[in-house]
Specification:
Layout (H helix, E strand, L loop, with lengths): L1 E8 L5 H8 L4 H9 L2 E9 L4 E8 L2 H6 L4 H10 L14 E2 L8
Antiparallel strand pairs: 1-3, 1-4, 2-3
């Protein structure tokens, strides 16, 4: 299992709506995530900066990267686009974080 961590940025005025839209996420998106080998996926908020910290355990980089090619993921990105920083294809602007410590 590969542990991935990344950061994104939600607009401060949209934190409540961002949270609401994730609770619960669409069942079809949950299925696609599971089908693509994503486990223990969590998103945390730094309330001072509005940065989001994402953590997921994935079966492979290939499956993780293929998520963005699914119709439901593209639909979700478009749905969330007004709430956070996004790229031209509506995917979230995301920066991978370097893993430097783990206590098993």
């Amino acid at each position: 299992m590969i542990r991935k961590a990344f950061k994104m940025k939600v607009y401060p005025d949209n934190i409540e709506e961002y949270t609401k839209r994730h609770n619960p996420i669409w069942p079809e998106l949950q299925k696609v995530l599971k089908d693509h080998g994503v486990h223990n996926y969590s998103i945390f908020l730094d309330e001072e900066t509005s940065f989001l910290f994402g953590y997921a355990e994935v079966e492979s980089e290939e499956k993780w990267n293929a998520l963005g090619d699914t119709e439901v993921c593209k639909k979700w990105w478009k749905y969330m686009a007004g709430l956070m920083e996004t790229n031209a294809d509506y995917s979230p602007v995301s920066t991978d974080l370097k893993h430097i410590f783990h206590l098993p």
